[in-house]
């Protein structure tokens, strides 16, 4: 009997670990089941929250672009901190001035983030062929050929958050005031929102087409009347200006001297320049712009009387809407006996998806001391249509058109963005004793935006003119433009 008891005790002892292991395993399975049930419950809760969030999201067609000036103070600060693309897109993103005007190259930043510096560049390579009816008074021959229209480098940065600065130089020496040599040496202070203060050497703040950067224009050259009337006053020039941005308004007003490289023997000529625009619609791809623009300037003393002689350097002239040849087709010659002169005009621009239109008209007046006063005039209208699913982009923050980002660039396997454009312009430089001539110009353009920073422009221009230097001509020009 005792042997039997000892045997049973031995068997029970051998089986005890197996029962213990099974009990521990069952306990672990129960714990795991509870964890899975809890996770499943949480997943169900998250799915419910996501569905509710999706219900409250606005529909794609209801999403609208908002400019920074439409926001309250807190929202403005948040918007300025957003890291957005350096190019425009069709999505509802803010234009951030800290990035919108910089190129694609990375910027250097100080460890504390208060200082930023970057380099940008622009290369415009032109070629063209003329067909003309020679002017027998001048025997001018408009020259076929190639040209580096612009080759500029810009150093730009931000200091202490509220200071933006630019230093820009054009190495192409293209021979006309707005792009010859030093183009910008300026500082911008933006601490007085919604006001910005500009000081230094920069563009003269007049006109819509001439306020656009050359890289963002719809055609190879600015419209003939605006470039003639506005650049002749001097651009870029030393000046002090301010901009104001309201909910539906943009204003820029400044006091400007003369181009920095003009040698003065007398007091510098000065002027008040400005633009005022109403922007009832100001989304990137759906916008309307209506504005007034102009300047009023006093003449340099050396432009009026020097040693009893009526000397002057003021003249208004144009090469037409092609700069491939160096010959001018209209020219008032040097206008003497100056007192004051002024320009006044209107601006209109509209973009609605693939369709864009802009037009300007202006009058330039010259007040003289002893001779009859003069009045010249001119304007243009132009429009474009995007052949691809893209749109020209309006930047309400600076009241100008800005860089276009193709929906599918060639680097992404697409064909980029394609646009066809038309322009007609007219200018009259005849009045009183001045016979500068008059001209009309018609341009057909085809633009291929390969990427955000590369594009090709094809322009076919027909020009009719009359006057001492007039040339009737056709020209086909092409441009390869690269920004970096």
Blueprint (SSEs and pairs):
Blueprint: H1 2-56, H2 73-81, H3 97-100, E1 108-109, E2 115-133, E3 145-159, E4 163-170, E5 181-192, E6 195-202, H4 224-231, E7 237-245, E8 249-256, E9 271-282, E10 286-298, E11 317-318, E12 330-331, E13 338-352, E14 355-368, E15 374-386, E16 393-395, E17 400-402, E18 417-431, E19 434-449, E20 454-466, E21 472-483
Antiparallel strand pairs: 1-2, 2-3, 2-21, 3-4, 4-5, 5-6, 6-7, 7-8, 8-9, 9-10, 10-13, 11-12, 13-14, 14-15, 15-18, 16-17, 18-19, 19-20, 20-21
Stated plainly, the CATH topology of the largest domain is called Porin
Q: What's the CATH class label of the largest domain?
A: Mainly Beta
Alpha plus pi helix count: 4
Which whole number gives the mean pLDDT? Answer: 82
Distance between the termini: 102 Å
Radius of gyration (Å): 33 Å
CATH architecture of the largest domain: Beta Barrel
What global shape is seen?
Answer: elongated
| Largest sheet: number of strands, sense, barrel closure | 16 strands, antiparallel, barrel
Question: What fraction strand?
Answer: 35-45%
**How is the largest sheet built, in terms of strand order?**
2-3-4-5-6-7-8-9-10-13-14-15-18-19-20-21
Number of domains: 2
Assembly state: single chain
CATH homologous superfamily of the largest domain, by name?
Answer: Porin
The portion of residues assigned to helices is 10-25%
Q: Could you tell me the number of beta strands? A: 21
**H-E order:** HHHEEEEEEHEEEEEEEEEEEEEEE
Which structural category do the helix and sheet elements fall into?
Answer: alpha+beta
Which stretches of 5+ consecutive residues score pLDDT under 50? Answer: 60-94, 305-310
